[in-house]
Structures are given as structure tokens and as C-alpha cells.
Specification:
- 62% of the residues lie in helices and 7% in strands.
- It is an alpha/beta fold.
- It folds into 2 domains: 227 residues, Rhopdopsin 7-helix transmembrane proteins (Up-down Bundle); 120 residues, 3-Layer(aba) Sandwich (Rossmann fold), CATH 3.40.50.
- A 5-stranded parallel sheet has the order 2-1-3-4-5, sandwiched between helices.
- The longest helix is centred in the middle third of the chain and has 37 residues.
Length: 376
């Protein structure tokens, strides 16, 4: 069992450390902004497994027991935060976002009320472990359409989603035996009698597979960096080459205000719009977009359309911006660029003040069709 706990701890810690240090700050994938929570889960859960290992080795000490007691629920808390944040997405869903903190507070109350390490372990798995791992599985599965065509990264995402589900069943529902239901029926001893092996061995196997799957997911950021560099190189003049006289640009179809907080998305959108014959003005958040739109309108040179990201991290998003702009300019033509096809904003864009939707990652044909529907 000591070896099992060591392997499980090593797999979790490696997963967490790799996710935390992997460069992904400038990524256009929304998942990148949430992965640090999986990283924190991995590091803390790995330390929790190693604390259990040292206790099995006979190492004594109140500090070690306290660390083991606290690390387990805290690691599951971050995993539950990840699942809740990703599933909530651009939706407000205050109950879902508040659930991790409320469940952690409930665990704390139970622990302080009982002062039992076994009860603390069981309640951490029931209250935080089971919902955290299962919600994370669902959250990763929902990202599959975004990773379409990305080979190993998409396969790793699907593998991690599936194994997180199994890990949730084995770490969140199968617990130490106790005198209350369901721990009195579904526990380590009953699992051993049925499966012929300790549940901890299967948890360790799941941890190894999850780490492998998530390592493949991280490869998408390497691909993204290569594509960004490739685009920059293609757009840069080649040394020693004479500049060719290019064909005249297409007739100007209109002026578009493009609001995205991710630089790579602004660059990609700018390039596609210019290829389609549009003059493009970029904005990083809703306040800048409102200022640019009103300024252009006052000068008598208004934008023909705006493309807005619904939510901007740390700033005003497109949902707020379009409400403000509609009040002043009811005739404005606006597209929302959503991360998910099943997002309420994407499905009911008209209810939010938009005239159409673009689901990221979109191509030049999608952009052309969406703008043509606006009459451009």
C-alpha cells in the first residue's frame, strides 16, 4: 500500500506542477484561465497522498495528521471550483459558483463538531470529492467541441474526462467504513471483498492516466504558440526578397469594431476581416468599445458592425457594452463571439441585444456569412 500511495501522490503532484508552470497566459482557449485550479488540486492531492503514505510507514506527529486532514478537502475544493467555473462559463449561475465555498464551510463545521479524522475524511469525499471530480469530468467533456481537430490534445481531454468520472466514483463514494449510511455499506472493506483489490490501487491507476491525458491537453498551448509564430512570420517581409506588387485590395465592405481581450483572437479576427474587405478597429474591453463607437458616430463615420466577446475577464464585457450602445444607437448591428454553441447567449442572441452569433473558433467563411446576414 505504501507503493500505491507513493505512485498516486507522484502522479497527482506531477500533474499539478506541470499545469501550474506550463506557459498559457496568452492562450485564446478559455480553458487556460481555469487550469490553475486543476494544478492546485494536483499539488495538494499529491501531498495528501504522501502524508497518508508516511502515516502508513509509522511516522507519527500531530502536524502530519493535521496536514493530511486539511489537504484532502482543500484539494477537492479547488477541483470543484474548476468544474463549477468552467460549467458556469459566461452565465452568472451564482448558486453553482458559490457551491464550492459553501460545501467547504459545511465540511469545516462537521469537522469542528466531531473532531474525528475519519469523519473528516469521509465528509470531504462526500461533500467535495464526489461533486468535484464528477463536475470536472463534465466540464472537460464540454470542452471537446472546442478542441475539434486538435489530435492528441482532444484525445487527452476525452481520456481525462472519462477517467475523472471513474476517479470520482472511487475517491468520492468509496470511503472508510463507518457506522452511518452509506459508509456502512459502500466502503473500503466491501470493495475489497467484491473487486479483490484495494480501491486505492485503482485510484492510483486513474491518477496516472489522468496525468497522462492532461499532459496531452497541455500540448495544445505548444501548437497555439507555433501557429502564432507561423502567422507572424508569414506576415513579415522575407529578408533579401523583393516586394511583389500585390493585387489591389477588395472594395471596402464596411468598418467593423472588433472587441476581444485575447490578443491572438484580435489578430486572427483582424486578419480575416481585412481579407474580406473590411476596415477593422480593435478594442480590448467594453468600455473601450463604447468609447470608440460613440467617437466614430460623433465624427460622422460610424462603424457598420461590431463583434463583441460576451464576457471579458477583469473588465466590461460585450453583454454590458451592447446594452449601453443599444440605448444610444438602436440601429447598431452587432455579433456576439461566443465560446460555446450551447451557451444561452449563443442560442438566444436576440434576447441579449445581438443580431447574430459567431462560435469560436470561427473561420473566415463563418465570418463572411455572419456579416452578410447583417447586410454587409
Amino acid at each position: 500500500m505504501i507503493t500505491v500511495f507513493f505512485i498516486c501522490g507522484l502522479a497527482c503532484f506531477t500533474l499539478g506542477f506541470s499545469v501550474l508552470i506550463y506557459p498559457k497566459k496568452e492562450s485564446a482557449f478559455r480553458l487556460a484561465g481555469h487550469l490553475r485550479l486543476i494544478g492546485l488540486f494536483g499539488v495538494l492531492h499529491g501531498l495528501s497522498e504522501w502524508a497518508e503514505m508516511f502515516m502508513l510507514m509509522g511516522v507519527q506527529g500531530g502536524l502530519l495528521k493535521a496536514a493530511r486532514t486539511v489537504l484532502l478537502p482543500l484539494s477537492f475544493f479547488f477541483l470543484l471550483r474548476f468544474g463549477a467555473d468552467v460549467v458556469a462559463g459566461d452565465k452568472k449561475k451564482p448558486a453553482l459558483r458559490a457551491a464550492p465555498a459553501l460545501l467547504l464551510l459545511l465540511w469545516t463545521a462537521l469537522f469542528l463538531g466531531t473532531r474525528s479524522i475519519k469523519t473528516a475524511d469521509i465528509s470531504a469525499r462526500y461533500l467535495l470529492g464526489a461533486p468535484g471530480t464528477l463536475l470536472t469530468s463534465y466540464a472537460l467533456f464540454r470542452q471537446m467541441p472546442v478542441f475539434k481537430g486538435l489530435g492528441p490534445a482532444r484525445s487527452g481531454l476525452g481520456l481525462s474526462a472519462g477517467v475523472f468520472f471513474l476517479y470520482g466514483l472511487m475517491s468520492g463514494l468509496i470511503v472508510p467504513e463507518a457506522g452511518f449510511f452509506p459508509a456502512s455499506v459502500v466502503n473500503y472493506r466491501s470493495f475489497m471483498e467484491i473487486a479483490g483489490m484495494p480501491v486505492q490501487a485503482l485510484r492510483a491507476a486513474c491518477a496516472v492516466v489522468i496525468a497522462y491525458g492532461m499532459m496531452n491537453v497541455l500540448r495544445v498551448f505548444d501548437w497555439e504558440s507555433r501557429e502564432r509564430i507561423k502567422t507572424l512570420l508569414e506576415e513579415s517581409p522575407k529578408p533579401g526578397k523583393k516586394l511583389k506588387i500585390s493585387a489591389p485590395p477588395p472594395a471596402l465592405r464596411g468598418r467593423v469594431l472588433l472587441m476581444e481581450d485575447m490578443e491572438i483572437l484580435r489578430l486572427a479576427g483582424d486578419r480575416m476581416l481585412r481579407e474580406l474587405g473590411f476596415e477593422v478597429t480593435p478594442a480590448e474591453d467594453g468600455r473601450e468599445a463604447i468609447g470608440l463607437y460613440t467617437g466614430a458616430a460623433r465624427k460622422g463615420n460610424p462603424f457598420d458592425a461590431v463583434i463583441l466577446a460576451p464576457v471579458i475577464k477583469g473588465g466590461m464585457g460585450g453583454l454590458e457594452a451592447i446594452r449601453a450602445l443599444r440605448e444610444i444607437y438602436p440601429e447598431i448591428k452587432a455579433l456576439v463571439s461566443s465560446d460555446y454553441p450551447d451557451d444561452p447567449v449563443a442560442e438566444n442572441f436576440g434576447d441579449y441585444g445581438f443580431d447574430g452569433v459567431l462560435v469560436k473558433p470561427y473561420g473566415i467563411k463563418d465570418l463572411d456569412v455572419a456579416l452578410a446576414r447583417l447586410g454587409l
